[in-house]
């Protein structure tokens, strides 16, 4: 919608983004790159359009007001991640053509999981930004197993921000162990700007995209999920003993393709 784009333009200054890949060390292997990655990206480019993914088959444009559509979303009402804080339905509101997940100064935050496209394989794309972020609030766009479990404890975090407010990460979890077996990639990026984060999951591998540019690939059969999964959106609180400031995760839309 034109008015929504004007609103976004009014509150977000355009910048040129350095997105050179950052390989992580430690007890992790790193996702491979699909050729050279451009030094800058166009934040309005969609992987779905650039790569001809076809028609949207499910998702949410958030073109309504109030609580998330209960036919599309199950909103969290529970203790927070790892027992920290609270996930409250009141923290998630649809307004201005987007979903706003707000984390307050006391660790009350929110999240929701999709009732749509609970499937094995497919393509997902999500347009997301944050406000200036407290390091204690970690936004994550991910796929989670439909029955909350899988033989290899699969989890696909295709846009996740942790303690560094200027870095976005991709993490593919593939083993049920405290050693955190993952393949990962990371990029320097301005999370306060709109970006399109996409995931393509096929029988032969998983590819992640930012604004149409591939930045993560894993084709190891042992790393791939073996069960159906679904979209979730979360703003998780990781308290570090310092004062927490309000943070918002804002999602313009979620779209699923075959």
TrEMBL record:
User: Which Pfam families did the record assign?
Assistant: Glyco_hydro_16
The name this protein goes by in its record: GH16 domain-containing protein
SUPFAM superfamilies xref list: Concanavalin A-like lectins/glucanases
Note the CDD domains from the entry: Glyco_hydrolase_16 (cd00413)
Q: Where is the signal peptide?
A: 1-21
Q: Which PANTHER family match?
A: GLYCOSIDE HYDROLASE FAMILY 16 PROTEIN, GLYCOSYL HYDROLASE-RELATED
Give the family this protein belongs to, as stated in its UniProt record. Answer: Belongs to the glycosyl hydrolase 16 family.
* PROSITE patterns xref list: GH16_2
Q: Recite the lineage of the species.
A: Bacteria, Bacillati, Actinomycetota, Actinomycetes, Micrococcales
- Please name the InterPro entries in this protein's record: Beta-glucanase-like (IPR000757), ConA-like_dom_sf (IPR013320), Glycosyl_Hydrlase_16 (IPR050546)
Q: Where is the GH16 domain?
A: 50-258
Q: Which UniProt keywords apply?
A: Signal
Give the GO biological process terms: carbohydrate metabolic process
Q: Does the keyword Signal apply?
A: yes
Q: Name one GO molecular function term.
A: hydrolase activity, hydrolyzing O-glycosyl compounds
Organism, as annotated = Arthrobacter globiformis (strain ATCC 8010 / DSM 20124 / JCM 1332 / NBRC 12137 / NCIMB 8907 / NRRL B-2979 / 168)
């Amino acid at each position: 919608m034109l008015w929504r784009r004007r609103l976004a333009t009014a509150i977000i200054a355009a910048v040129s983004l350095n997105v050179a890949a950052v390989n992580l060390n430690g007890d992790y292997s790193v996702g491979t790159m699909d050729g050279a990655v451009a030094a800058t990206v166009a934040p309005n480019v969609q992987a779905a359009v650039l790569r001809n993914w076809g028609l949207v088959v499910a998702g949410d444009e958030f073109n309504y007001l109030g609580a998330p559509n209960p036919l599309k979303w199950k909103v969290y009402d529970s203790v927070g991640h790892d027992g920290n804080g609270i996930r409250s339905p009141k923290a998630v509101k649809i307004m201005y053509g987007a979903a706003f997940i707000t984390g307050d100064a006391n660790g009350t935050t929110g999240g929701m999981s999709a009732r749509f496209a609970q499937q094995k394989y497919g393509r997902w794309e999500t347009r997301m930004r944050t406000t200036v972020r407290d390091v204690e609030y970690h936004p994550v766009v991910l796929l989670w197993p439909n029955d909350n479990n899988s033989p290899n404890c699969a989890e696909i975090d295709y846009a996740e921000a942790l303690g560094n407010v200027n870095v976005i990460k991709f993490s593919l979890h593939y083993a049920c162990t405290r050693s955190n077996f993952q393949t990962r990639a990371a990029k320097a990026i301005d999370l306060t700007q709109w970006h399109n984060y996409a995931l393509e999951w096929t029988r032969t591998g998983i590819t992640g995209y930012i604004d149409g540019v591939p930045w993560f690939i894993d084709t190891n059969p042992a790393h791939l999920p073996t069960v159906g999964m679904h979209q979730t959106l979360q703003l998780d609180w990781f308290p570090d003993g310092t004062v927490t400031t309000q943070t918002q995760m804002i999602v313009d839309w979620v779209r699923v393709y075959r």
